């Protein structure tokens, strides 16, 4: 699995820098420091590698956040906005998903997966009594993905995504009063302070998972 992850990370960096058309197999192999045989053992083609990068987006964020309901939904979008400025794998996934028709692919599954994750948060929020009557979790989940997709494209052109966090924060300040009960609107944390809290927790969880259990937990 380490070889596959090395290839995925190298491919993400090259796709992020050059796009699909400019990302040659040779460039990816040189970045990874691996052979063509290693690549084709794990991925059948450059397109297969691109699809794997596209579909890896949620894995960089979602498993490491432990908040619940609407706060989890907000946290995912805030950390996503922050990680887009730092993580080549996430950036490449977003870029390839947007570019995919240019290399003959029409695959909505990355959007659908994000929409399912958002809807899951909203169904949890509904069960916790956080949503107003009549709010459809699936409909709102899909809308959040649509809104974030448009925001990051606008922000990429306007500021190189430097203002993406501000845009996401504004989205929630406008949206929350329309979907959440008043007591929850007042409790949901949105903005830079929440990003620091959520990313610190996510980073700690990811690091702990990467290093594995210590001697005490393994015994």
UniProtKB/TrEMBL annotation:
<dbReference type="GO" id="GO:0003700">
    <property type="term" value="F:DNA-binding transcription factor activity"/>
</dbReference>
<keyword id="KW-0805">Transcription regulation</keyword>
<keyword id="KW-0804">Transcription</keyword>
<dbReference type="InterPro" id="IPR036271">
    <property type="entry name" value="Tet_transcr_reg_TetR-rel_C_sf"/>
</dbReference>
<dbReference type="InterPro" id="IPR009057">
    <property type="entry name" value="Homeodomain-like_sf"/>
</dbReference>
<dbReference type="InterPro" id="IPR001647">
    <property type="entry name" value="HTH_TetR"/>
</dbReference>
<dbReference type="InterPro" id="IPR054126">
    <property type="entry name" value="CprB_TetR_C"/>
</dbReference>
<feature type="domain" description="HTH tetR-type">
    <location>
        <begin position="1"/>
        <end position="61"/>
    </location>
</feature>
<dbReference type="InterPro" id="IPR023772">
    <property type="entry name" value="DNA-bd_HTH_TetR-type_CS"/>
</dbReference>
<dbReference type="InterPro" id="IPR050109">
    <property type="entry name" value="HTH-type_TetR-like_transc_reg"/>
</dbReference>
<feature type="DNA-binding region" description="H-T-H motif">
    <location>
        <begin position="24"/>
        <end position="43"/>
    </location>
</feature>
<dbReference type="InterPro" id="IPR047923">
    <property type="entry name" value="ArpA-like"/>
</dbReference>
<keyword id="KW-0238">DNA-binding</keyword>
<protein>
    <submittedName>
        <fullName>Gamma-butyrolactone-binding protein</fullName>
    </submittedName>
</protein>
<dbReference type="Pfam" id="PF00440">
    <property type="entry name" value="TetR_N"/>
</dbReference>
<dbReference type="Pfam" id="PF21935">
    <property type="entry name" value="TetR_C_45"/>
</dbReference>
<dbReference type="GO" id="GO:0000976">
    <property type="term" value="F:transcription cis-regulatory region binding"/>
</dbReference>
């Amino acid at each position: 699995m380490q070889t596959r992850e090395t290839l995925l990370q190298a491919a993400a960096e090259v796709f992020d820098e050059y796009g699909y058309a400019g990302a040659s197999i040779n460039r990816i192999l040189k970045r990874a420091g691996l052979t063509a045989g290693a690549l084709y053992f794990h991925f059948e083609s450059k397109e297969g590698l691109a699809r794997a990068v596209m579909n890896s987006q949620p894995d960089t964020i979602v498993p490491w956040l432990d908040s619940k309901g609407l706060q989890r939904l907000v946290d995912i979008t805030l950390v996503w906005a922050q990680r887009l400025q730092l993580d080549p794998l996430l950036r490449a996934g977003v870029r390839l998903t947007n570019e995919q028709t240019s290399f003959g692919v029409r695959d909505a599954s990355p959007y659908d997966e994000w929409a399912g994750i958002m809807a899951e948060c909203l169904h949890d929020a509904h069960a916790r009594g956080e949503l107003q009557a009549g709010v459809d979790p699936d409909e709102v989940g899909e809308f959040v993905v649509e809104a974030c997709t448009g925001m990051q494209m606008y922000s990429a052109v306007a500021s190189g995504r430097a203002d993406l966090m501000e845009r996401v924060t504004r989205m929630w300040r406008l949206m929350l009063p329309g979907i959440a009960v008043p007591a929850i609107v007042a409790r949901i944390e949105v903005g830079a302070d929440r990003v620091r809290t959520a990313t610190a927790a996510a980073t700690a969880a990811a690091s702990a998972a990467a290093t594995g259990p210590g001697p005490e937990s393994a015994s």
